[in-house]
Amino acid sequence: MNTEPLLNFIKATIPHFKLDEQGLLKTAECFEELELEKGEFLVKIGKPSGYFIMLEGYLRAYTFNEEGEEITTYFFPANRVVFEVASFFQGLPSEENIIALTKCKGFYTSFGKLNGIFHAVPEFREFGRAVLVKEFVAYKQRTLSMINKTAEERYAQLIQTNRDIFQYAQLKHIASYLGITDTSLSRVRREFSSK
Amino acid sequence: MNTEPLLNFIKATIPHFKLDEQGLLKTAECFEELELEKGEFLVKIGKPSGYFIMLEGYLRAYTFNEEGEEITTYFFPANRVVFEVASFFQGLPSEENIIALTKCKGFYTSFGKLNGIFHAVPEFREFGRAVLVKEFVAYKQRTLSMINKTAEERYAQLIQTNRDIFQYAQLKHIASYLGITDTSLSRVRREFSSK
DNA sequence: GTCATTTCTTACCAATTGACAAGTTGCTTC
DNA sequence: GAAGCAACTTGTCAATTGGTAAGAAATGAC
């Protein structure tokens, strides 16, 4: 297993990470390489979530509303750590599916193993916290745009920050992610492109 | 300083917390008692956020949109840990104000001191993580209702889960928290109460 | 107490969004 | 190629929400 990309990712996340041989080895040991084909699930509803450092690919998280319709809760681009927080950290069955929109590559571990590294490699704890904080902050941002931006503004923002998504995800999924119907998104797109 | 309520809160959060004299003392040492009068700020925009274990009271977090209008991002009831995550954990100036809606009581600490406890009292790290995860999960839930619930459903949900808020917060602030205008909330309330 | 200010409600109209249905396009399967 | 299916767009109408203004109610200053 070539662990260099994994360690690079960790170093990029926390510049303070020290590379003593011991810790480096222990850290790498706890991860396994994982590849997902398009359409494969990283997390399934009802099952526990793992912890996936994704270096290539795109993922979509979704759940179902009372009417049984899919609600897309998140899109994950590459170079993000992907996990369903309640399931992973609270040991609950996941309430979300996370599915590969493209072929995905990265490094995978479980809660038990991650805790093992936290215990054995103190510097690594900072990584765990930084990741949790980063994802939390991203979610706060998302909530904020839901409360104070119009559908069109949210669409424009998504195009700016995550244009690739439109290449891989279906518009109906982008619509539910933006909190509107696919019909509405279609209209928004027409008006937006006429500007 | 009577640290019993503080330690009870920690124990309630993580039942595994061991009460060895040493760690107990060190933990308590890092907190100071804090009381806020109604209208006082816990966090101010531009300043760093602290970490407040609030045992009594209600707080409101808010920011401003491009038009300079207040947007309420969160209401904190008692028995929650209150902090602005990006500011506290990433050392950034806060982009939110957090203000007391009522008299508030609890225990306060800074990032440096909290890290000190994490270092000195390993069991306490679990508390820090549990708190972070809990707040993250709460925010995810909030985002989900913004995407797949109507304003009236969100209103009904807030009444059910947080009825007290209506006693302490202004309706215009509740409106922006729900992502609607105060005019709209007024209508929703009329229609809701006529059912 | 009065006055002034803010908060909340209501009314009116405009803009946005949703629900439903029909039509187009593209893809898969046979 | 034809048939079937899913994704996307468009149109129509209804429901929801926003913007503005006016008035009622509550609050605070004096």
User: Beta-sheet strand percentage of chain A?
Assistant: 15-25%
Report the biggest beta sheet of chain A as strand number plus sense, adding barrel if it closes: 4 strands, antiparallel
Estimate the helix proportion of chain A, in percent.
40-55%
Work out the helix count of chain A. Answer: 9
Task: Explain what the structure shows.
The structure is a homodimer of 195-residue chains. Chain A has 195 residues and is of the alpha+beta class. Chain A is 50% helix and 21% strand. Chain A contains 9 helices and 8 strands. The first copy, chain A, has helices spanning 4-13, 21-29, 85-90, 111-120, 122-148, 151-162, 165-168, 171-178, 182-193; strands at 32-36, 41-43, 51-56, 59-64, 70-76, 80-82, 97-100, 104-109. In chain A, strands 1-8-3-6 form a 4-stranded antiparallel beta sheet. In chain A, strands 2-7-4-5 form a 4-stranded antiparallel beta sheet. In chain A, strand 4 and strand 5 form a beta hairpin. In chain A, helix 4 crosses helix 5 (122-148). The longest helix of chain A is centred in the last third of the chain and has 27 residues, at 122-148. Chain A is elongated, with a radius of gyration of 18 Å. The first copy, chain A, starts with a helix and ends with a helix. The mean pLDDT of chain A is 94. At the A-B interface, helix 3, helix 5 and helix 8 of A face helix 3, helix 5 and helix 8 of B. The structure holds a DNA duplex (30 and 30 nucleotides).
Task: Summarize the topology.
The structure is a homodimer of 195-residue chains.
Chain A: H1 4-13, H2 21-29, E1 32-36, E2 41-43, E3 51-56, E4 59-64, E5 70-76, E6 80-82, H3 85-90, E7 97-100, E8 104-109, H4 111-120, H5 122-148, H6 151-162, H7 165-168, H8 171-178, H9 182-193
Antiparallel strand pairs in A: 1-8, 2-7, 3-6, 3-8, 4-5, 4-7
Helix pairs in contact in A: 4-5, 6-9, 8-9
Chain A binds a DNA duplex (30 and 30 nucleotides) through helix 9.
